Amino acid sequence: MKEYSKSAFVADVIKALEDAERASQQNPKDKGTLARDAYSKLQYDYPLVSEQELQALTEAVCSKESWPVLSDRVLTVLYDCVSRGGSKTGGTASLKQEQGPSISATTTTAEDLEGDALLAAFQKLYSLFIVSTMTEALLQETPEAASRLLGQLVTLPRGNTSRAAAAAAEGTALQDLRSNLEPLNGVIDIENGASDRISDVTHDVDAVLLDKDEDNGVYEPLEIFTPVGVMGAAPARASSTSIVAGSDFIDEVISKLLYLSSKLSYHNVSSSAAWQDGILLSCLERCLTALRQHPSFLELLPAAGAVCSVLRDRCVHSRNIAEFATSMEAVVKGLSLSKDSTVQGAAGKDEKAAAASLLGLRTAASLSTRLPQGPSRRKLWTQIDEFWLQVAAGMLERKEAQWRQQKKKTKDSTTTATAAAAAEEEDIQIIAISALITEFYILDAPIIVTKDKIQDVLLSTGLFRGLVVSFINHGRELLVLESLCRTLLICCASSTGLLTWAKAVPGFPSAWDHPEFVENGSLERYGAVHAAVFGLANGDEALARVLLLLGNGGIEAENVPEVYITLKLVKSVQKARDRSGKGGKETASFLSGTATVAALENLSSSLRALKVVLDEQDCENDSMATVDESEEAEKREEEKLALSSGQQARKLAARRAKLLQPECLRMIKGLRAKPGSVGKSD
User: Fold this and answer.
1) CA distances (Å), origin 555, targets 183, 493, 548, 616, 665
2) Is 158 strand, coil or helix?
3) What is the tally of structural domains in the chain?
4) What residues contact residue 352 under an 8 Å CB cut-off, 6+ apart?
5) Which of 311, 331, 358 is the last residue of a domain?
6) How many whole angstroms from its chain centre is CA 313?
7) Rounded CA gap, 212 and 324, in Å?
8) The pLDDT of residue 655
9) Crossing angle between the packed helical segments 482-494 and 560-579, to the nearest 10 degrees
10) Average pLDDT per run of 10 along the chain, which is 682 residues long?
11) DSSP state of 1
12) Is 22 contained in some domain?
């Protein structure tokens, strides 16, 4: 038998592919056939799918006439093509490399054309498949029908009930919120040139940088085969979302919907081409609407959060102001938010309305920390002014009403520890989000907006009152919310009217006497800034003490983040105070005290001395690297791996210090300038 060489085999395969392509061009297939072909190919690990086939399947997914079934197998293959750029299609890529440029450029994989139209088509199909399947399941008239639609998805373990899954996802949402409030996020912002807004909730910033383990996905056993090319009629659509709660199927349906929503991520639909026609945006809004109207909305809240996160991230990455406005409108409409719903939620009459309001507010607050300077950020300020401030005020009012009820229940000993912990977690979210919204509203206000306008809005909406009352009632219990202290100081610095109002509230001035705010307390910097802003006799001395403690005797690399957070606080308060002169009499700087000025000079000198030390360490490392790379590269790698956790921590601290040191010096320079010349905060 004649030996069949590798080159001959490759040539025959190439010829077969080219013949198939010519045949398809001579006899074009209709969209239905193309869609079925694409769906059939997506059953396998190495899909060789054309852009036309993907587009046809995408249209089928969005069509009301036919409905392809989303199986866990198809979801896994699409996820691989999108998130890994088709890295599993190594065989196809190798074939292309061997045969050269003659192979068809119209039939390839996501890896071959990463970043262009084909990858965008994969991304769009992946997200639309998930969103449309969720929407269709939510619109089914019975849970049995929804279960049949979701039948080919892997069922979560029975121990993982829908409520447990919802609780876990909600915990992730809180962790995400806290990561947004992470003080050291400013390090990343400086590096990227983005907004450097800082809040002060303690959280490990390194955990935010960890990617999800790729082995966490659920895979269908190879022995179980799913129908190839299932393209049946669309399921009957109900006139309203009416899945009956308490059904035998409801837990399974909710678990699978939460499972599907966990696969949603802007990272997997980041191509602008996937958003151009507006179909994905409208489908996300429709899905959010279906979730909001569902009887089990509270259990499906994490799924609604996943949809809002995709819309939020699109707002951040889009440079189109119209698309930004449309995306935020989708959040408001999808969650059925209005001033009336906010009032109902605040009154405690509608738990779903309150949950939707908090989710929408969290989306807006997250945008305030992520949007770079530009038209979208200015548009967000307008939206906050017109709508979100009132939502925040309503949520704070509702929280206070619940707190009073909880206090009564606690006296009666009817409140469990779990319920109390859950209430405290919700308090953290509401207070932190409202503080972020308020801070953004003051510091990012357009130049034409006067201090009187800001003061009147914060007082008339009740937002400032809510923040003050929260500080009095919860400040000692929730000291983790440094952002609340920061925001209140910014408010009082921005307006003498707000300062006077706060001083007159019983319990507010005395709340600052807590041991944590005084000398040697963990929040001493806030107490010192409070003394300076409120014009107390020891204001200059207290602020100078904090600054001197940071700079005296030199600064260690590990302490630079603390310096940055303190200077950022002082800078933001000074900016708010400078703003208060617009529309009225110019306000003198609260940093003009002799002791404070000297402390800033000392801190500046210590930071410059630290730079010399860091530069010397870099020179030593560069010198060692030169020797190692030429002679002992392997040994150097082994030494890196052998570093103790303490040594690794010191290296990380040095890296952070090098990033933050120049920004700290810039802030000191701005703080030492004349009043009104602090400059941009971002």
Assistant:
1) 19, 29, 11, 15, 13
2) coil
3) 2
4) 292, 297, 298
5) 311
6) 7
7) 28
8) 87
9) 30
10) 76 84 72 86 84 88 75 89 57 36 41 64 93 93 87 60 47 49 42 35 31 37 33 40 54 91 92 92 96 94 96 93 94 88 58 93 95 94 95 91 75 55 74 95 93 94 95 70 91 94 93 88 92 91 92 84 94 86 52 87 91 77 51 65 76 88 93 56 40
11) -
12) yes
pLDDT at 568: 95
Quote the tokens at residue 478.
Answer: 């929730």
Query: What tokens does 330 get?
Result: 């989708």
| Residue 593 confidence (pLDDT) | 83
Which are the contacts of 401, defined by CB distance < 8 A and separation ≥ 6?
346, 347, 348
Is residue 196 within 8 A of residue 682, CB to CB? The reply is: yes
> What integer pLDDT is reported at residue 189 of this predicted model?
43
Contact status, residue 651 vs residue 554, Cβ threshold 8 Å: no
Q: How far apart are CA 490 and CA 569, in angstroms?
A: 9
Q: What residue numbers bound the domain in which 303 lies?
A: 7-152+244-311
- Boundary (domain end) residue, out of 274, 289, 311: 311
Residue 164 in any domain: the answer is no
Query: Which residues does 413 contact at the CB level (< 8 Å), separation at least 6?
Result: none
260 falls within a domain? yes
Q: Residue 441 and residue 368: Cα distance in Å, rounded?
A: 9
- Say what the pLDDT of residue 578 is: 85
- pTM of the full structure: 0.78
Helices (runs of H) and strands (runs of E) counted in the chain: 30, 4
- What is the C-alpha separation between 308 and 302, in angstroms, rounded? 10
* 73 found inside a domain: yes
**Tokens 């490392």 found at:** 621
One-letter amino acid for residue 423 of the chain: A
In the three-class reduction of DSSP (H, G, I as helix; E, B as strand; rest coil), residue 296 is classed as coil
pLDDT of the residue at 114: 44
- Dihedral, CA of residue 44, residue 47, residue 53 and residue 54, to nearest 10: 90
Cβ burial 13-48 (10 Å sphere, 16+ → b, else e): ebeebeeeeeebeeeeeeeeebbbbbbbbbbeebbe
